[in-house]
Design brief:
It is a single chain. The protein is of the alpha+beta class and 264 residues long. The chain has a domain of 139 residues: Adenine-n6-DNA-methyltransferase TaqI, Chain A, domain 2. 45% of the residues lie in helices and 15% in strands. The chain contains eight helices and ten strands. A four-stranded antiparallel sheet has the order 2-9-6-7. A hairpin with an 8-residue loop joins strand 6 and strand 7. The chain is globular and about 70 Å long. The protein starts with 12 loop residues before the first helix and ends with a helix.
């Protein structure tokens, strides 16, 4: 933060060697080491499980978006052929802006969540702005359920459905599909094509994506009913992945808590 002074303290080797620590007997050390190794093994296996489900989803996406696998209607009939559409023709898009950082009244006691490109997956933001900050800048409001696409920065090409009602800055593009197009389907087809988009438009990782670039992207789209079935399928996989990730976090937190209790 502006005006904050951070002082770094250094620990000299001789001071470190003089520090006293409590060490259990060898037998207890062995028991602690074996116990923590067991937890490490569980964590490692859980990471493999998460990775396996993520790879499984990528494989499913490849088959669905290449049309190698097609869904059928509820009555067993075939859906119509997919049609090529330009994203700008089926969605409304806009980006935001940032209130001047030097104006305290734009940020102090702010009540409006200010979403930056690194926060498009999150359900809360680090910064909040005031109504003046919103009204006197290029920041734009988005709703829960809007598609948010990171145009530049470390998260360039990332996309998600907003979990927050708030304002966006210039590094985010809000995408609002028209009635015949499913937002989850659009999110997933953008995710599936992320590397291709970055490789095509960000040469050597340099430059930025733009609203014009995203609007010009062309994809094949099925009818809305088939989009819904694809979205439901991928959402089911997302639920499994999130549960597995939550299990991984729980094990990691357990280990952290045990270490604190053992060595503090």
């Amino acid at each position: 933060m502006e005006g904050t002074v951070i002082k770094l303290m250094t620990l000299k080797p001789r001071d470190f060697l003089r520090m006293k620590s409590y060490i259990p007997c060898l037998e207890e050390q062995q028991k602690i080491a074996e116990f923590l190794s067991t937890i490490d093994t569980v964590i490692a296996k859980q990471k493999e499980t998460v990775s396996a489900w993520e790879k499984r989803k990528k494989g499913v996406m490849q088959k669905l978006f290449s049309q190698e696998v097609r869904f059928k209607a509820d009555d067993g009939s075939k859906f119509p052929d997919w049609e090529e559409k330009k994203l700008g023709d089926i969605c409304k898009t806009f980006s935001g802006g940032t209130p001047k950082s030097g104006k305290t009244r734009y940020y102090e006691n702010g009540t409006i969540s200010f979403i930056r490109s690194g926060e498009i997956h999150d359900d809360k933001t680090e910064l909040r702005i005031t109504k003046d900050g919103l009204n006197e800048s290029s920041a734009k409001m988005v709703d829960i359920g809007d598609i948010l696409y990171a145009l530049y920065g470390a998260t360039s090409g990332e996309v998600d459905i907003s979990k927050i009602k708030g304002a966006i800055n210039q590094a985010i593009l809000c995408i609002r599909p028209l009635n015949d197009f499913h937002r989850k389907f659009i999110v997933e087809i953008l995710r599936h094509n992320k590397e291709t988009i970055l490789r095509t438009y960000l040469q050597g990782g340099q430059g930025n994506l733009s609203s014009q670039i995203i609007q010009s992207l062309v994809f094949d789209f099925p009818c809305l009913a088939e989009q819904q079935k694809i979205a439901d399928c991928l959402s089911s996989l997302d639920e499994v992945i999130e549960k597995q990730k939550a299990t991984l976090v729980a094990w990691e937190e357990l280990k952290k808590g045990l270490l604190q209790q053992m060595f503090v």
